[in-house]
Amino acid sequence: MDTSSQPHDSKASVSLAAAGLRLYDTADHQVTPFRPIEPGKVGIYVCGATVQSSPHIGHIRTTLAFDVIRRWLLRLGYRVTLIRNVTDIDDKILTKAAANGQRWWERAYIYEREFTHAYETMGVLPPTYEPRATGHIPEMIDLIQRIIDHGHAYVVPDEQGRPSGNVYFDVASWPEYGALTHQQTGTQPTDEQAAANDRLGPSIDTDEQTADTDEEPGKHDPRDFALWKAPKPTDPPTARWQTPFGTGRPGWHLECSAMSHRYLGAEFDIHGGGLDLRFPHHENEMAQSHAAGWGFAHRWMHTAWVTQKGEKMSKSLGNGLSVDQVLSQHPAWVVRYALVSVQYRSMLEWSDQSLQEAQGAYERISNFVDRAGRILGAQPERDLVAGLGADDLPEDFVQAMNDDINVSGGLAALYALIRQANAAMDADSETPDRKWLANTLLQVRAMLDVFGLDPLDPHWARAAADRDDRAMDTLDALVGQQLQEREQARKDHDFARADAIRDQLTAAGVAVADTPAGSTWDLSR
Protein backbone atom coordinates (compact mmCIF):
# COMPACT_ATOMS: atom_id res chain seq x y z
CA MET A 1 0.00 0.00 0.00
CA ASP A 2 1.26 3.45 -0.88
CA THR A 3 2.23 5.00 2.44
CA SER A 4 2.36 8.43 0.86
CA SER A 5 -1.43 8.42 1.12
CA GLN A 6 -0.99 8.73 4.90
CA PRO A 7 0.19 12.23 5.86
CA HIS A 8 3.01 12.19 8.37
CA ASP A 9 1.34 12.69 11.74
CA SER A 10 4.30 14.59 13.15
CA LYS A 11 3.75 17.32 10.56
CA ALA A 12 -0.05 17.32 10.70
CA SER A 13 -1.84 20.55 11.61
CA VAL A 14 -5.60 20.83 11.86
CA SER A 15 -7.16 22.73 8.97
CA LEU A 16 -9.68 25.52 9.25
CA ALA A 17 -12.18 23.22 7.54
CA ALA A 18 -12.06 20.82 10.50
CA ALA A 19 -14.24 23.22 12.52
CA GLY A 20 -17.16 22.39 10.20
CA LEU A 21 -17.07 18.60 10.60
CA ARG A 22 -20.37 17.13 11.81
CA LEU A 23 -20.92 13.41 12.42
CA TYR A 24 -23.85 11.22 13.37
CA ASP A 25 -23.91 9.64 16.83
CA THR A 26 -25.91 6.42 17.08
CA ALA A 27 -26.52 6.95 20.80
CA ASP A 28 -27.96 10.45 20.32
CA HIS A 29 -29.57 9.89 16.90
CA GLN A 30 -28.20 13.28 15.88
CA VAL A 31 -25.61 14.80 13.57
CA THR A 32 -23.53 17.04 15.82
CA PRO A 33 -20.25 18.97 15.59
CA PHE A 34 -17.22 16.77 16.05
CA ARG A 35 -14.79 17.90 18.72
CA PRO A 36 -11.99 15.48 19.61
CA ILE A 37 -11.09 14.76 23.22
CA GLU A 38 -7.53 15.91 22.61
CA PRO A 39 -7.08 18.77 20.13
CA GLY A 40 -5.50 17.64 16.89
CA LYS A 41 -5.84 13.93 17.62
CA VAL A 42 -8.58 11.37 16.96
CA GLY A 43 -8.80 7.86 18.41
CA ILE A 44 -11.00 5.34 16.59
CA TYR A 45 -11.81 1.74 17.48
CA VAL A 46 -13.49 -0.34 14.77
CA CYS A 47 -14.80 -3.84 15.43
CA GLY A 48 -12.95 -6.10 13.01
CA ALA A 49 -13.44 -9.61 11.75
CA THR A 50 -14.21 -12.83 13.53
CA VAL A 51 -11.87 -14.97 11.47
CA GLN A 52 -13.87 -18.17 11.13
CA SER A 53 -14.38 -18.16 7.33
CA SER A 54 -13.63 -16.21 4.17
CA PRO A 55 -14.58 -12.52 3.89
CA HIS A 56 -17.41 -11.38 1.68
CA ILE A 57 -18.50 -8.00 0.38
CA GLY A 58 -20.76 -7.39 3.38
CA HIS A 59 -17.73 -7.56 5.68
CA ILE A 60 -15.57 -5.28 3.56
CA ARG A 61 -18.14 -2.47 3.33
CA THR A 62 -17.63 -1.43 6.98
CA THR A 63 -13.84 -1.54 6.69
CA LEU A 64 -13.92 0.64 3.57
CA ALA A 65 -16.40 3.09 5.11
CA PHE A 66 -14.12 3.73 8.08
CA ASP A 67 -11.15 3.91 5.72
CA VAL A 68 -12.86 6.86 4.00
CA ILE A 69 -13.75 8.44 7.35
CA ARG A 70 -10.13 8.08 8.45
CA ARG A 71 -8.81 9.51 5.16
CA TRP A 72 -11.03 12.56 5.54
CA LEU A 73 -9.90 13.11 9.13
CA LEU A 74 -6.30 12.91 7.92
CA ARG A 75 -7.08 15.38 5.15
CA LEU A 76 -8.51 17.73 7.81
CA GLY A 77 -5.11 17.55 9.50
CA TYR A 78 -5.90 15.29 12.44
CA ARG A 79 -3.46 12.74 13.78
CA VAL A 80 -5.55 9.56 13.67
CA THR A 81 -5.01 6.40 15.67
CA LEU A 82 -7.22 3.62 14.30
CA ILE A 83 -7.43 0.28 16.08
CA ARG A 84 -9.17 -2.62 14.31
CA ASN A 85 -9.29 -5.87 16.26
CA VAL A 86 -9.28 -9.51 15.23
CA THR A 87 -11.53 -11.91 17.14
CA ASP A 88 -9.49 -15.09 16.85
CA ILE A 89 -11.33 -17.31 19.33
CA ASP A 90 -15.02 -18.02 19.66
CA ASP A 91 -17.55 -20.87 19.47
CA LYS A 92 -17.79 -20.92 15.68
CA ILE A 93 -14.03 -20.95 15.18
CA LEU A 94 -13.70 -23.88 17.60
CA THR A 95 -16.62 -25.79 16.04
CA LYS A 96 -15.56 -25.29 12.42
CA ALA A 97 -11.93 -26.09 13.15
CA ALA A 98 -12.91 -29.37 14.80
CA ALA A 99 -15.24 -30.26 11.93
CA ASN A 100 -12.45 -29.69 9.41
CA GLY A 101 -9.67 -31.42 11.34
CA GLN A 102 -7.88 -28.14 12.07
CA ARG A 103 -6.43 -26.62 15.19
CA TRP A 104 -8.55 -23.63 16.14
CA TRP A 105 -5.64 -21.19 16.08
CA GLU A 106 -4.58 -22.55 12.68
CA ARG A 107 -8.02 -21.92 11.21
CA ALA A 108 -8.17 -18.45 12.73
CA TYR A 109 -4.84 -17.49 11.22
CA ILE A 110 -5.75 -18.84 7.77
CA TYR A 111 -8.79 -16.59 7.61
CA GLU A 112 -7.07 -13.67 9.29
CA ARG A 113 -4.65 -13.70 6.36
CA GLU A 114 -7.56 -13.85 3.91
CA PHE A 115 -9.11 -10.76 5.49
CA THR A 116 -5.76 -8.96 5.47
CA HIS A 117 -5.27 -9.81 1.79
CA ALA A 118 -8.77 -8.53 0.99
CA TYR A 119 -8.14 -5.26 2.84
CA GLU A 120 -4.83 -4.75 1.06
CA THR A 121 -6.25 -5.61 -2.36
CA MET A 122 -9.07 -3.12 -1.85
CA GLY A 123 -6.63 -0.34 -0.98
CA VAL A 124 -7.46 -0.03 2.73
CA LEU A 125 -4.87 1.87 4.75
CA PRO A 126 -3.42 -0.44 7.39
CA PRO A 127 -4.68 0.24 10.92
CA THR A 128 -2.39 1.87 13.43
CA TYR A 129 -2.53 -1.49 15.19
CA GLU A 130 -4.57 -4.67 14.78
CA PRO A 131 -4.69 -6.57 18.10
CA ARG A 132 -5.85 -10.16 18.45
CA ALA A 133 -8.20 -11.13 21.26
CA THR A 134 -5.98 -14.00 22.38
CA GLY A 135 -3.08 -11.60 22.86
CA HIS A 136 -4.91 -9.63 25.55
CA ILE A 137 -6.08 -12.15 28.12
CA PRO A 138 -4.32 -10.37 31.05
CA GLU A 139 -6.12 -7.12 30.21
CA MET A 140 -9.43 -8.99 30.10
CA ILE A 141 -8.84 -10.60 33.48
CA ASP A 142 -8.02 -7.20 34.98
CA LEU A 143 -11.17 -5.70 33.47
CA ILE A 144 -13.38 -8.48 34.85
CA GLN A 145 -11.91 -8.02 38.31
CA ARG A 146 -12.51 -4.28 38.07
CA ILE A 147 -16.17 -4.78 37.16
CA ILE A 148 -16.60 -7.31 39.99
CA ASP A 149 -14.99 -4.90 42.46
CA HIS A 150 -17.42 -2.20 41.35
CA GLY A 151 -20.33 -4.51 42.09
CA HIS A 152 -21.53 -5.09 38.54
CA ALA A 153 -20.50 -8.70 37.83
CA TYR A 154 -20.62 -12.04 39.62
CA VAL A 155 -18.74 -15.34 39.49
CA VAL A 156 -20.85 -18.49 39.26
CA PRO A 157 -19.66 -21.22 41.66
CA ASP A 158 -19.48 -24.89 40.69
CA GLU A 159 -21.08 -27.71 42.69
CA GLN A 160 -18.19 -27.64 45.16
CA GLY A 161 -18.50 -23.89 45.63
CA ARG A 162 -15.35 -23.11 43.65
CA PRO A 163 -15.22 -20.58 40.78
CA SER A 164 -16.71 -22.35 37.78
CA GLY A 165 -15.17 -20.18 35.08
CA ASN A 166 -18.49 -18.48 34.31
CA VAL A 167 -18.63 -14.75 35.05
CA TYR A 168 -21.62 -12.59 34.08
CA PHE A 169 -22.30 -8.89 33.94
CA ASP A 170 -25.16 -8.01 36.27
CA VAL A 171 -27.47 -5.95 34.06
CA ALA A 172 -29.89 -5.19 36.88
CA SER A 173 -27.08 -3.48 38.80
CA TRP A 174 -26.47 -1.02 35.98
CA PRO A 175 -29.43 1.40 35.51
CA GLU A 176 -27.79 2.95 32.43
CA TYR A 177 -28.01 -0.32 30.47
CA GLY A 178 -29.74 0.42 27.16
CA ALA A 179 -28.25 3.89 26.73
CA LEU A 180 -26.96 3.09 23.24
CA THR A 181 -30.06 1.44 21.82
CA HIS A 182 -32.53 3.19 24.17
CA GLN A 183 -33.92 0.08 25.81
CA GLN A 184 -35.53 0.10 29.21
CA THR A 185 -33.49 -1.81 31.80
CA GLY A 186 -36.45 -2.77 33.93
CA THR A 187 -38.33 -4.52 31.14
CA GLN A 188 -37.85 -7.82 29.37
CA PRO A 189 -36.42 -7.51 25.86
CA THR A 190 -38.96 -7.00 23.11
CA ASP A 191 -39.45 -9.73 20.53
CA GLU A 192 -37.30 -7.72 18.15
CA GLN A 193 -34.53 -7.30 20.71
CA ALA A 194 -34.69 -10.96 21.68
CA ALA A 195 -34.43 -11.97 18.04
CA ALA A 196 -31.47 -9.64 17.63
CA ASN A 197 -29.83 -11.13 20.69
CA ASP A 198 -30.11 -14.58 19.16
CA ARG A 199 -28.92 -13.39 15.79
CA LEU A 200 -26.12 -10.97 16.47
CA GLY A 201 -22.50 -11.89 16.89
CA PRO A 202 -18.88 -10.90 16.47
CA SER A 203 -18.79 -10.80 12.72
CA ILE A 204 -19.63 -7.60 10.90
CA ASP A 205 -22.13 -9.79 9.06
CA THR A 206 -23.93 -11.40 11.92
CA ASP A 207 -25.87 -14.24 10.31
CA GLU A 208 -22.64 -16.18 9.95
CA GLN A 209 -21.61 -15.63 13.53
CA THR A 210 -24.07 -15.89 16.37
CA ALA A 211 -23.35 -14.71 19.86
CA ASP A 212 -22.88 -17.43 22.46
CA THR A 213 -26.16 -19.34 22.37
CA ASP A 214 -25.27 -22.37 24.47
CA GLU A 215 -26.93 -22.78 27.82
CA GLU A 216 -25.46 -20.36 30.30
CA PRO A 217 -25.71 -21.90 33.76
CA GLY A 218 -25.96 -19.78 36.87
CA LYS A 219 -27.22 -16.54 35.33
CA HIS A 220 -29.23 -14.36 37.71
CA ASP A 221 -31.15 -12.70 34.91
CA PRO A 222 -31.72 -13.67 31.25
CA ARG A 223 -30.32 -10.27 30.24
CA ASP A 224 -26.95 -10.87 31.93
CA PHE A 225 -24.12 -11.59 29.51
CA ALA A 226 -20.89 -13.54 29.77
CA LEU A 227 -17.64 -11.81 30.64
CA TRP A 228 -15.80 -15.11 31.01
CA LYS A 229 -16.95 -18.57 29.93
CA ALA A 230 -16.22 -21.97 31.37
CA PRO A 231 -14.98 -24.35 28.68
CA LYS A 232 -17.22 -26.88 27.03
CA PRO A 233 -16.06 -30.51 27.18
CA THR A 234 -15.24 -30.34 23.47
CA ASP A 235 -13.00 -27.28 23.83
CA PRO A 236 -9.32 -28.18 23.31
CA PRO A 237 -6.87 -27.54 26.17
CA THR A 238 -5.24 -24.76 24.13
CA ALA A 239 -8.50 -22.79 24.17
CA ARG A 240 -8.57 -22.45 27.97
CA TRP A 241 -6.89 -20.01 30.30
CA GLN A 242 -6.44 -20.15 34.09
CA THR A 243 -7.92 -17.18 35.94
CA PRO A 244 -9.05 -16.31 39.50
CA PHE A 245 -12.59 -16.97 38.24
CA GLY A 246 -11.82 -20.49 37.05
CA THR A 247 -10.57 -22.00 33.81
CA GLY A 248 -12.21 -20.70 30.64
CA ARG A 249 -12.05 -18.21 27.79
CA PRO A 250 -13.23 -14.65 27.26
CA GLY A 251 -16.73 -13.55 26.43
CA TRP A 252 -16.92 -11.82 23.09
CA HIS A 253 -18.17 -8.44 24.34
CA LEU A 254 -15.35 -8.21 26.87
CA GLU A 255 -12.61 -8.45 24.25
CA CYS A 256 -13.26 -5.11 22.57
CA SER A 257 -13.55 -3.20 25.84
CA ALA A 258 -10.18 -4.55 26.99
CA MET A 259 -8.40 -3.94 23.68
CA SER A 260 -9.79 -0.44 23.09
CA HIS A 261 -8.69 0.54 26.61
CA ARG A 262 -5.25 -0.95 26.05
CA TYR A 263 -4.54 1.13 22.93
CA LEU A 264 -6.83 4.17 23.18
CA GLY A 265 -7.20 4.68 26.91
CA ALA A 266 -10.17 5.02 29.24
CA GLU A 267 -12.00 7.26 26.77
CA PHE A 268 -11.63 7.83 23.06
CA ASP A 269 -13.39 9.65 20.25
CA ILE A 270 -15.17 7.16 17.98
CA HIS A 271 -16.28 3.54 18.24
CA GLY A 272 -17.36 2.06 14.92
CA GLY A 273 -18.75 -1.11 13.44
CA GLY A 274 -21.55 -2.62 11.42
CA LEU A 275 -25.17 -1.73 12.09
CA ASP A 276 -25.90 -5.20 13.45
CA LEU A 277 -23.42 -4.75 16.27
CA ARG A 278 -25.43 -2.08 18.08
CA PHE A 279 -27.23 -4.74 20.11
CA PRO A 280 -26.11 -6.71 21.99
CA HIS A 281 -22.41 -6.24 21.28
CA HIS A 282 -21.94 -2.50 21.49
CA GLU A 283 -24.64 -2.08 24.11
CA ASN A 284 -22.80 -4.57 26.29
CA GLU A 285 -19.43 -3.01 25.56
CA MET A 286 -20.73 0.37 26.67
CA ALA A 287 -22.27 -1.02 29.85
CA GLN A 288 -19.27 -3.03 31.02
CA SER A 289 -16.79 -0.25 30.19
CA HIS A 290 -18.79 2.43 31.98
CA ALA A 291 -19.38 0.06 34.89
CA ALA A 292 -15.59 -0.32 35.12
CA GLY A 293 -15.34 3.44 35.56
CA TRP A 294 -14.17 4.31 32.05
CA GLY A 295 -15.54 7.11 29.89
CA PHE A 296 -15.17 4.84 26.84
CA ALA A 297 -16.35 6.01 23.38
CA HIS A 298 -17.64 9.56 23.03
CA ARG A 299 -19.32 8.87 19.70
CA TRP A 300 -20.76 5.72 18.09
CA MET A 301 -20.83 5.33 14.31
CA HIS A 302 -22.40 2.39 12.49
CA THR A 303 -22.41 1.39 8.83
CA ALA A 304 -25.53 0.06 7.15
CA TRP A 305 -25.87 -3.29 5.42
CA VAL A 306 -25.03 -4.39 1.92
CA THR A 307 -28.21 -5.78 0.39
CA GLN A 308 -29.12 -7.84 -2.66
CA LYS A 309 -32.65 -7.43 -3.96
CA GLY A 310 -33.55 -5.78 -0.68
CA GLU A 311 -32.20 -8.57 1.51
CA LYS A 312 -29.20 -8.21 3.79
CA MET A 313 -26.18 -9.93 2.28
CA SER A 314 -25.20 -13.05 4.20
CA LYS A 315 -23.97 -16.55 3.55
CA SER A 316 -26.76 -18.10 5.59
CA LEU A 317 -29.32 -16.61 3.19
CA GLY A 318 -27.38 -17.90 0.22
CA ASN A 319 -26.65 -14.46 -1.21
CA GLY A 320 -23.16 -13.87 0.12
CA LEU A 321 -20.50 -12.93 -2.40
CA SER A 322 -16.95 -13.75 -1.43
CA VAL A 323 -14.35 -11.09 -2.03
CA ASP A 324 -12.28 -13.49 -4.13
CA GLN A 325 -15.30 -14.28 -6.30
CA VAL A 326 -16.07 -10.63 -6.95
CA LEU A 327 -12.44 -9.68 -7.58
CA SER A 328 -12.04 -12.51 -10.08
CA GLN A 329 -14.65 -10.74 -12.22
CA HIS A 330 -14.00 -7.05 -11.55
CA PRO A 331 -10.95 -4.85 -10.88
CA ALA A 332 -10.48 -3.94 -7.22
CA TRP A 333 -10.77 -0.21 -8.02
CA VAL A 334 -14.23 -0.80 -9.48
CA VAL A 335 -15.34 -2.90 -6.50
CA ARG A 336 -14.05 -0.28 -4.07
CA TYR A 337 -15.88 2.50 -5.92
CA ALA A 338 -19.13 0.53 -5.79
CA LEU A 339 -18.73 0.07 -2.03
CA VAL A 340 -17.65 3.59 -1.04
CA SER A 341 -19.89 5.63 -3.35
CA VAL A 342 -22.86 5.32 -0.98
CA GLN A 343 -22.89 7.21 2.34
CA TYR A 344 -21.93 4.90 5.20
CA ARG A 345 -25.30 5.06 6.99
CA SER A 346 -27.28 4.19 3.84
CA MET A 347 -28.12 0.66 2.76
CA LEU A 348 -26.02 -0.31 -0.26
CA GLU A 349 -27.76 -2.39 -2.91
CA TRP A 350 -25.23 -4.71 -4.56
CA SER A 351 -25.98 -5.48 -8.20
CA ASP A 352 -24.51 -5.79 -11.67
CA GLN A 353 -25.77 -2.27 -12.31
CA SER A 354 -23.77 -0.83 -9.41
CA LEU A 355 -20.63 -2.49 -10.77
CA GLN A 356 -21.34 -1.26 -14.30
CA GLU A 357 -21.75 2.27 -12.95
CA ALA A 358 -18.46 1.91 -11.08
CA GLN A 359 -16.73 0.74 -14.27
CA GLY A 360 -18.14 3.75 -16.10
CA ALA A 361 -16.88 6.02 -13.33
CA TYR A 362 -13.39 4.56 -13.68
CA GLU A 363 -13.33 5.21 -17.42
CA ARG A 364 -14.64 8.75 -16.98
CA ILE A 365 -12.14 9.59 -14.24
CA SER A 366 -9.11 7.94 -15.81
CA ASN A 367 -9.86 9.53 -19.20
CA PHE A 368 -9.87 12.98 -17.60
CA VAL A 369 -6.72 12.35 -15.58
CA ASP A 370 -4.88 11.00 -18.63
CA ARG A 371 -6.06 13.79 -20.93
CA ALA A 372 -5.17 16.59 -18.52
CA GLY A 373 -1.80 15.00 -17.87
CA ARG A 374 -1.04 14.80 -21.60
CA ILE A 375 -1.93 18.45 -22.15
CA LEU A 376 0.16 19.55 -19.18
CA GLY A 377 2.99 17.19 -20.07
CA ALA A 378 3.14 15.75 -16.55
CA GLN A 379 1.09 14.60 -13.59
CA PRO A 380 1.24 16.14 -10.09
CA GLU A 381 3.69 14.33 -7.85
CA ARG A 382 2.03 11.74 -5.65
CA ASP A 383 3.31 13.52 -2.51
CA LEU A 384 1.49 16.69 -3.58
CA VAL A 385 -1.73 14.74 -4.12
CA ALA A 386 -1.50 13.02 -0.74
CA GLY A 387 -0.49 16.18 1.10
CA LEU A 388 -3.14 18.60 -0.22
CA GLY A 389 -5.15 19.68 2.83
CA ALA A 390 -8.89 20.16 3.07
CA ASP A 391 -8.50 23.95 3.04
CA ASP A 392 -7.14 23.69 -0.52
CA LEU A 393 -10.01 21.56 -1.86
CA PRO A 394 -13.21 22.92 -3.48
CA GLU A 395 -15.64 24.33 -0.94
CA ASP A 396 -18.62 22.25 -2.10
CA PHE A 397 -16.56 19.05 -1.70
CA VAL A 398 -15.44 20.03 1.80
CA GLN A 399 -18.99 20.92 2.83
CA ALA A 400 -20.28 17.56 1.61
CA MET A 401 -17.60 15.53 3.37
CA ASN A 402 -18.02 17.57 6.55
CA ASP A 403 -21.74 16.77 6.46
CA ASP A 404 -21.42 13.31 8.08
CA ILE A 405 -19.14 12.06 5.27
CA ASN A 406 -21.69 12.69 2.51
CA VAL A 407 -19.81 10.85 -0.23
CA SER A 408 -22.62 11.33 -2.75
CA GLY A 409 -22.29 15.10 -2.41
CA GLY A 410 -18.52 14.79 -2.51
CA LEU A 411 -18.62 12.80 -5.73
CA ALA A 412 -21.07 15.31 -7.23
CA ALA A 413 -18.57 18.09 -6.50
CA LEU A 414 -15.79 15.99 -8.02
CA TYR A 415 -17.69 15.34 -11.25
CA ALA A 416 -18.74 18.99 -11.52
CA LEU A 417 -15.08 19.99 -11.51
CA ILE A 418 -14.22 17.30 -14.07
CA ARG A 419 -17.01 18.55 -16.36
CA GLN A 420 -15.74 22.11 -16.05
CA ALA A 421 -12.17 21.05 -16.86
CA ASN A 422 -13.26 18.92 -19.81
CA ALA A 423 -15.23 21.85 -21.20
CA ALA A 424 -12.18 24.08 -20.88
CA MET A 425 -9.99 21.54 -22.66
CA ASP A 426 -12.62 21.08 -25.38
CA ALA A 427 -12.76 24.83 -25.95
CA ASP A 428 -9.02 25.21 -26.31
CA SER A 429 -7.13 21.95 -26.13
CA GLU A 430 -3.89 23.54 -27.34
CA THR A 431 -3.55 26.47 -24.94
CA PRO A 432 -5.88 26.10 -21.95
CA ASP A 433 -5.17 28.01 -18.75
CA ARG A 434 -2.34 25.69 -17.74
CA LYS A 435 -2.04 26.96 -14.18
CA TRP A 436 -5.77 26.50 -13.57
CA LEU A 437 -5.79 23.08 -15.23
CA ALA A 438 -2.78 21.91 -13.21
CA ASN A 439 -4.45 22.98 -9.96
CA THR A 440 -7.71 21.37 -11.03
CA LEU A 441 -5.99 18.08 -11.83
CA LEU A 442 -4.26 18.18 -8.44
CA GLN A 443 -7.58 18.84 -6.68
CA VAL A 444 -9.38 16.08 -8.57
CA ARG A 445 -6.75 13.51 -7.71
CA ALA A 446 -6.69 14.66 -4.07
CA MET A 447 -10.49 14.35 -3.85
CA LEU A 448 -10.28 10.88 -5.37
CA ASP A 449 -7.62 10.01 -2.82
CA VAL A 450 -10.06 10.85 -0.01
CA PHE A 451 -12.08 7.89 -1.30
CA GLY A 452 -8.93 5.83 -1.85
CA LEU A 453 -9.51 6.03 -5.60
CA ASP A 454 -6.68 8.10 -7.09
CA PRO A 455 -6.06 6.01 -10.22
CA LEU A 456 -2.36 6.93 -10.20
CA ASP A 457 -1.81 5.79 -6.61
CA PRO A 458 1.02 3.22 -6.95
CA HIS A 459 -1.28 0.68 -5.30
CA TRP A 460 -3.68 0.76 -8.26
CA ALA A 461 -0.81 0.88 -10.76
CA ARG A 462 0.57 -2.33 -9.23
CA ALA A 463 -2.90 -3.87 -9.27
CA ALA A 464 -3.28 -3.04 -12.98
CA ALA A 465 0.13 -4.53 -13.72
CA ASP A 466 -0.81 -7.69 -11.82
CA ARG A 467 -4.05 -7.96 -13.80
CA ASP A 468 -2.13 -7.51 -17.06
CA ASP A 469 0.35 -10.22 -16.02
CA ARG A 470 -2.46 -12.63 -15.15
CA ALA A 471 -4.23 -11.87 -18.41
CA MET A 472 -1.05 -12.47 -20.38
CA ASP A 473 -0.43 -15.76 -18.55
CA THR A 474 -3.96 -16.88 -19.42
CA LEU A 475 -3.57 -15.81 -23.05
CA ASP A 476 -0.22 -17.59 -23.27
CA ALA A 477 -1.78 -20.81 -22.04
CA LEU A 478 -4.68 -20.59 -24.51
CA VAL A 479 -2.51 -19.67 -27.51
CA GLY A 480 0.04 -22.31 -26.54
CA GLN A 481 -2.66 -24.96 -26.66
CA GLN A 482 -3.72 -23.78 -30.11
CA LEU A 483 -0.12 -23.90 -31.35
CA GLN A 484 0.27 -27.44 -30.03
CA GLU A 485 -2.86 -28.47 -31.94
CA ARG A 486 -1.49 -26.75 -35.04
CA GLU A 487 1.86 -28.52 -34.70
CA GLN A 488 0.10 -31.87 -34.36
CA ALA A 489 -2.00 -31.09 -37.45
CA ARG A 490 1.17 -30.36 -39.42
CA LYS A 491 2.73 -33.61 -38.24
CA ASP A 492 -0.42 -35.39 -39.41
CA HIS A 493 -0.15 -33.57 -42.77
CA ASP A 494 -3.53 -31.96 -42.06
CA PHE A 495 -2.40 -28.65 -43.48
CA ALA A 496 -5.93 -27.34 -43.93
CA ARG A 497 -6.47 -27.69 -40.17
CA ALA A 498 -3.09 -26.11 -39.42
CA ASP A 499 -3.84 -23.15 -41.70
CA ALA A 500 -7.32 -22.73 -40.14
CA ILE A 501 -5.81 -22.50 -36.65
CA ARG A 502 -3.29 -19.93 -37.83
CA ASP A 503 -6.03 -17.91 -39.54
CA GLN A 504 -8.13 -17.96 -36.32
CA LEU A 505 -5.21 -16.69 -34.31
CA THR A 506 -4.42 -13.99 -36.87
CA ALA A 507 -8.04 -12.83 -36.84
CA ALA A 508 -7.83 -12.56 -33.06
CA GLY A 509 -4.74 -10.35 -33.31
CA VAL A 510 -2.13 -13.05 -32.61
CA ALA A 511 0.82 -13.12 -35.00
CA VAL A 512 2.39 -16.60 -35.39
CA ALA A 513 6.02 -17.03 -36.49
CA ASP A 514 7.44 -20.44 -37.44
CA THR A 515 11.10 -20.89 -36.54
CA PRO A 516 13.48 -23.89 -36.56
CA ALA A 517 12.99 -24.07 -32.79
CA GLY A 518 9.20 -24.12 -33.10
CA SER A 519 6.31 -21.70 -33.44
CA THR A 520 6.21 -18.46 -31.44
CA TRP A 521 3.52 -15.84 -31.11
CA ASP A 522 3.06 -12.17 -30.37
CA LEU A 523 0.21 -9.67 -30.38
CA SER A 524 -0.03 -8.10 -33.80
CA ARG A 525 -1.94 -5.05 -32.61
Automatic annotation (TrEMBL):
Recorded superkingdom: Bacteria
Positions of the Cysteinyl-tRNA synthetase class Ia DALR domain: 396-462
GO cellular component: cytosol
Keywords: Aminoacyl-tRNA synthetase, ATP-binding, Cytoplasm, Ligase, Metal-binding, Nucleotide-binding, Protein biosynthesis, Zinc
Polar residues composition bias: residue spans: 182-191
Motif ('KMSKS' region): 312-316
Enzyme class: ligase
UniProt remark on cofactor binding: Binds 1 zinc ion per subunit.
Locations listed in the record: Cytoplasm
Catalytic activity entry: tRNA(Cys) + L-cysteine + ATP = L-cysteinyl-tRNA(Cys) + AMP + diphosphate
InterPro entries referenced in this protein's UniProt entry, alphabetically: Cys-tRNA-ligase (IPR015803), Cys-tRNA-synt_Ia_DALR (IPR015273), Cys-tRNA/MSH_ligase (IPR024909), CysS_C (IPR056411), Rossmann-like_a/b/a_fold (IPR014729), tRNA-synt_1_cat_dom (IPR032678), tRNAsynth_Ia_anticodon-bd (IPR009080)
Key word Metal-binding present: yes
EC number of this enzyme: 6.1.1.16
GO function terms (MF aspect): ATP binding; cysteine-tRNA ligase activity; zinc ion binding
One BP annotation, GO: cysteinyl-tRNA aminoacylation
Location of the motif 'HIGH' region: 49-59
Compositional bias ranges of the Basic and acidic residues kind: 216-226
Disordered as annotated region, ranges: 182-246
Annotated positions binding ATP: 315
Record: residues binding Zn(2+): 47, 256, 281, 285
PANTHER family, per database record: CYSTEINE--TRNA LIGASE, CYSTEINYL-TRNA SYNTHETASE
Protein name: Cysteine--tRNA ligase
Annotated organism of origin: Bifidobacterium asteroides
Gene: cysS
